[in-house]
Amino acid sequence: MGLGVNATRRIALIIACLVVLAPPQAYAQSAGLGAAGELVDPERLRVCADPSNMPFSDESGEGFEDKLAKMVAEGTGRKSVSYTWFPSITGFVRNTLGANRCDIIMGYAQGDELVQNTNAYYRSSYVLVYKKDGPLSGVETLTDPRLADKRIGVVEGTPPSASMASAQLLRKAKVYPLMVDTRVAPSMAEIMIRDMLAGVIDAAVIWGPMAGYYAKKSGADLALVPLIKEKGGQRMIYRITMGVRPSDQQWKRTLNTFIRDHQADINKLLLEYGVPLLDEHDQAITQ
Question: Residue 122: helix, strand or coil by DSSP?
């Protein structure tokens, strides 16, 4: 599961100007709801989500995907948002979207064949996190010699762990478990940030949206460096889409229209949560 702790699906960005918005009724009329093979609820936005997976989703409604769901509901003419909660484990899609218990997964990595992807609404990467103005200031790649004697935190089985192995950094690394039930334990990203601030590790490699959120939450002055210069073929950058059923072609088109017309608002929401956004040229999006 490439993206790590409860975030495998959270892995482009549609660069579009904010255009004159069509009224919600226009989206609803164009959605083709009730068409042959489509089971999308025309009244409610039925969302499949993990109940304890900050900063993405949470039963409290505090995740950025929860906030985005409200935007999607309003923009597509839905009267409300309802949830089917299910942990991010094997069988998530089969037991939620595949069982017709909901109509959308708010964050899904582009290219996964279990769902039909909308256009991507953001693009992000794994990041290297360390204290600003410390001895690692200016480090941009995992092959930088200054990392050779450092203890770096990484989640087992994620793409950065393979890159770290190639750079011979795993000998001193602190490897964190991939599968954690965040309903009863803190996110590994949060623990890694804590460990770094406590001096247990010197740096950490974390999926960007998680790193940005927990670094911001910590209040510490931390550098988050997107790993966009890595060699060796390991994928560090992912486009994130909304996932729908393969049969729901009109629903996908409706969501693509929403993404295009609301891209600036989506970017603003993600930046508020500290998500490191990248455009198609790997340049940071800051507003």
Answer: strand
